[in-house]
Write a structure and sequence with these properties.
Layout: H1 2-10, E1 18-29, E2 32-44, E3 49-53, H2 60-68, E4 75-80, E5 83-84, E6 92-95, H3 107-111, H4 113-117, H5 125-134, H6 150-162, E7 168-172, H7 180-197, E8 200-204, H8 208-214, E9 217-221, E10 228-233, H9 245-257
Parallel strand pairs: 3-8, 3-9, 6-7, 7-8
Antiparallel strand pairs: 1-2, 1-4, 4-5, 9-10
Helix pairs in contact: 5-6, 8-9
This protein binds adenosine-5'-diphosphate and magnesium ion (MG).
Adenosine-5'-diphosphate binds at residues 27, 29, 34, 36, 54, 56-62, 224.
Family: Belongs to the ABC transporter superfamily.
Enzyme class: hydrolase
Protein name: Aliphatic sulfonates import ATP-binding protein SsuB
């Protein structure tokens, strides 16, 4: 018992197993039902990095919100390590396209938010410093959000998620607003963090190349209501190279699935 407890606390947070079974969901829109997800089934292994691609408005963010427990699904089931997802939980943390930092709080205090909300800050202050170190922002702990670049603000948002030691990191186009050079650097950071922390990662991106560079598996959705159109396993070690012919070929295939085959 003692050994098991010690081993568990010494290990980095391990990834969550996620199972999505026959999940359907819709919204009411002016008296009509708008179907958004249709019988989506997906199994994600602990520690996998899965990227979701699909046309804008098909239901990707909706799926992430259901996984995060921010909304309840109309039908079907969602489980984390076999237990039904019935609400938000600090083991499943979401990062959005906008960093949404509180402008009046310093970087450190923004990252501390989750621990503060759980009443844990007094005993776990060191975790804030650790999370800032993980994203390379220790020096900016006392800065205000307005003093940061877009990439740095997004790294703060990542640190704010990591401070909870998530077992599932849910990323909704987290790099979507960054310039292309920052984006490339942060794609590498996402891979490094994931490899070091061992969590399961679920990423929505509109960038096919990004999905192929970071994920073990890519899921392609249809137009709304989103159904899984294809699943591709990306059998390449990291770091990957965007001009790798294997990835270039997969990119063409995926663009074809998204109806953009002729555009590139
Ligand atoms: N809270 C909501 N109420 C009504 N309709 C919504 C709501 N959230 C999303 N939708 C609709 O659901 C569809 C899918 O949205 P979303 O999941 O955000 O798409 P994606 O992330 O793939 O671009 C869209 O048509 C959107 O208008
Ligand atoms: Mg979205």
């Amino acid at each position: 018992m003692v050994n098991a407890a010690r081993a568990a606390s010494a290990e980095p947070s391990r990834g969550l197993a996620l199972r999505i079974d026959n999940l359907s969901h819709g919204f009411s829109l002016e008296g009509h039902k708008l179907p958004v997800l249709e019988r989506v089934s997906l199994e994600i292994e602990p520690g996998e990095f899965v990227a979701l691609l699909g046309p804008s408005g098909c239901g990707k963010s909706t799926l992430l919100r259901l996984v995060a427990g921010l909304e309840g699904a109309d039908s079907g089931s969602l489980t984390a390590d076999g237990a039904a997802i019935t609400g938000p939980d600090p083991t499943r943390v979401m990062v959005f396209q906008d960093p949404t930092l509180y402008p009046w709080r310093r970087v450190w205090d923004n990252v501390a938010l989750g621990l503060e909300a759980q009443g844990l800050l007094k005993t776990t202050k060191g975790k804030v410093d650790e999370a800032l170190a993980k994203v390379g922002l220790s020096q900016f702990a006392r800065a205000y959000p307005r003093q940061l670049s877009g990439g740095m603000a997004q790294r703060v948002a990542l640190a704010r998620a990591l401070v909870n030691e998530p077992r599932l990191l849910i990323l909704d186009e987290p790099l979507g607003k960054l310039d292309s050079l920052t984006r490339i650097a942060m794609q590498q950071e996402l891979i490094d963090l994931w490899q070091r922390q061992g969590y399961t990662a679920l990423l929505v991106t509109h960038d096919v190349e990004e999905a192929l560079l970071v994920a073990n598996r890519v899921i392609v959705f249809s137009d709304r209501p989103a159904q899984i159109k294809a699943e591709l396993t990306i059998d390449r070690a990291y770091p990957r190279h965007r001009d790798d012919p294997y990835l270039v070929d997969l990119r063409k295939q995926i663009l074809g699935l998204l109806g953009l085959g002729q555009s590139w």
